[in-house]
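Input set for joint prediction.
Command: fold jointly, output tokens.
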Amino acid sequence: TQLLEQSPQFLSIQEGENLTVYCNSSSVFSSLQWYRQEPGEGPVLLVTVVTGGEVKKLKRLTFQFGDARKDSSLHITAAQPGDTGLYLCAERSGAQKLVFGQGTRLTINP
Amino acid sequence: ETGVTQTPRHLVMGMTNKKSLKCEQHLGHNAMYWYKQSAKKPLELMFVYNFKEQTENNSVPSRFSPECPNSSHLFLHLHTLQPEDSALYLCASSHLGGVEQYFGPGTRLTVT
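tokens >
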């Protein structure tokens, strides 16, 4: 089973700052998904990346898939308190199986 | 109701109790999933059901017994649990073969 490593585990920054979190694996991803989980809720899918080098944007969030498809990053510009949450990356392992990383717990302080 | 709902949201049970978690999806999906999310481990897939048939059991102990009476409902029957089973139990659904899974809010389970 592929292991996904996310870094950092915890990140606390001030509102307005920029940040980047990472998801890495020793193996090639078939595809990669990023989720955000807010306290008391289930994860919500943000994006799916499939092609090496792919860049997707979702408002202030920019997702990048490494050329070799072994790593991915999520960059947030001008972070806001509403961005607070647990950011999870996940890879499809088989037809319906998702393998998740441990997550990055992000806190944006007003 | 919309999306994926789970009840109860919180549950405290003793090790000798029997309880059930319920999940319902209102998205017209035909695949449903149980996941476990604990503090020290990544989110883990437990069971997968396609069209009411179990297609994946990720080496889950028999004290967890899933039931899927139809494509919209999924239960997790619990008995003789251990304190280390305390976790957030999440239900999800998707179209069969779909890349997107939609999660419910979870049941926070505490075993005393």
